[in-house]
Amino acid sequence: MSDDAPTNDGQRFDRLPETPADREVEGRASRREVLDWWAERFGIERGVFEGYSFWEKGAGKVWIFNGEATDPSRVEAIGMTFLRTRQEHWKPTTRAATRFGGLATKNVIELDPEQAAAFVAGDDQDLPEWDGDWGYLIAAHEVAGERAPIGVGLYLYDELRSVVPKGSRADLPVVE
Amino acid sequence: MNPLDRYEALVDDADAFRAACDRPLPSVVRVNEMAASPARVREAFDEEGVAYEPVDWHDGLFRLPDGNPGGNWPYVHGWTHGQEEVSVLPGLALDPRPGDRVWDACAAPGSKTTQIADAMDDEGTVVANDNNLGRLSALRHNAERLGITNAIVTNQDARNFSTKPLAFDEFDRALVDAPCSCEGTCRKNPDVVDQWTLDHVHAVAGIQKGILARAVQATRPGGTVVYSTCTFAPEENEAVLDHVLGEEDCEIVELDLPLDTVPGVTEWEDETYDESVTRAHRVYPHHNDTGGFFCAKLRVGGDDPNAASGGEEASA
């Protein structure tokens, strides 16, 4: 790339390009890749995100927005943080997992009441019985008769690591 | 002086008013209905053994007599948000619809922004502004926790708010939940009474007038502006409305609220105010066992461009 090619400015919001072919800023994820990733990783249909726009601010932090925007480069926030890109394994945010994880059809690990309480407290735990993919999973449990996503876990070597952010961790009762 | 002394002349029962102001308020949560229904929250509270009581004038509010509104599963899932009962009134008065363009001029820490987004079913655009950058982090945290994707957060002085970063230059609705003297919150924060000064009342009233005027200017003809505070001071309530009625093209309209209120006052000390301020609502702590509050709904003047299509349709 030449010296005057567009680069990522971590202080402003820029809309993701539609496809990799439309990419002008090196390393920036495209909308198509983001939708493909959610579809392939969690089975969330691409149509779910049809009305949303996607924006990058910071190094690889992708935001999802459901309102009207043209050039919001100077605002403080647009929608919610959604996905961390520009790293080998993309990572969904906890809030993306709670907001959209109910629509996931795969890579959802359902926790029993004790495991759910440990997870939301931020504790890592041995869960050798999981026979699905390694990597980032959506952790869920049953509450009030239905499955509800709690957040994102990282599954490696028979262990589920809780990546619930410190400010969102809680000591909650085990609800049998 | 204790500022509550000066309002005894305004209330029907000064002893009951003062007694109510001395009682602490219970913790209350509002259900984030875009994430869960009130029935599902009740079921989850029952499973977990969280004590709760309904609020008779609003299905989506629960009082938690044991406190700790953040220490339960519904909160962790973003199904509930800790919010004082009276604080839902401006959102009800604003009555935003899916697809609207809404400005929350003094938005942090976001209780009303998130209530507005919920009422819009997360569709449309809510612009949540606050001049205090530090308080914006609380707003952002709350909006994300509740799963809101239709909010833009800005950090401007609302008095000369610029719509330049936005995709449009006027709003359908605007909320001015203004910075104020806050005596109405004395049941949860008794310090506000000790910190009260008349100088601050006069200073903040100037800011309130500037913000409300800007909100009227930034709202389309026929659009709605709601003004609210948590102070009893007429200088910060009726006087602000009276000033903006004189400066901007707008009128105060009738508003039904689902709890006991009394009309705004037309006289205070040496001042008199436009008769239409009686359409504003004063909420006193002893009438509904809540915090104190003030709320008025304004219609911006001019022909409503949406009137032909039914008036309440969202603009394209």
Automatic annotation (TrEMBL), chain A:
Chain segments carrying region Disordered: 1-27
Source species, domain of life: Archaea
InterPro entries assigned to the protein according to its UniProt record, in alphabetical order: DUF7122 (IPR055546)
Compositionally biased region (Basic and acidic residues): 11-27
Domain DUF7122, first and last residues per copy: 1-79
Protein name: DUF7122 domain-containing protein
TrEMBL record, chain B:
PANTHER family reported in the protein's UniProt record: NOP2 YEAST -RELATED NOL1/NOP2/FMU SUN DOMAIN-CONTAINING, TRNA (CYTOSINE(48)-C(5))-METHYLTRANSFERASE
Top-level taxon: Archaea
Domain named SAM-dependent MTase RsmB/NOP-type: residues: 17-301
InterPro entries (alphabetical): MeTrfase_RsmB-F_NOP2_cat, MeTrfase_RsmB-F_NOP2_dom, Nop2p, RCMT, SAM-dependent_MTases_sf
Gene Ontology molecular function: any one: RNA binding
Family annotation (SUPFAM superfamilies): S-adenosyl-L-methionine-dependent methyltransferases
Family as reported in the entry's similarity comment: Belongs to the class I-like SAM-binding methyltransferase superfamily. RsmB/NOP family.
Pfam family membership, one: Methyltr_RsmB-F
Positions bound to S-adenosyl-L-methionine: 106-112, 130, 157, 177
Organism in which the protein naturally occurs: Halorubrum saccharovorum DSM 1137
PROSITE patterns reported for this sequence: SAM_MT_RSMB_NOP
Catalytic machinery residues: 230
GO biological-process terms attached to the record: tRNA methylation
Protein's UniProt name: RNA methylase, NOL1/NOP2/sun family protein
Keyword entries, A-Z: Methyltransferase, RNA-binding, S-adenosyl-L-methionine, Transferase
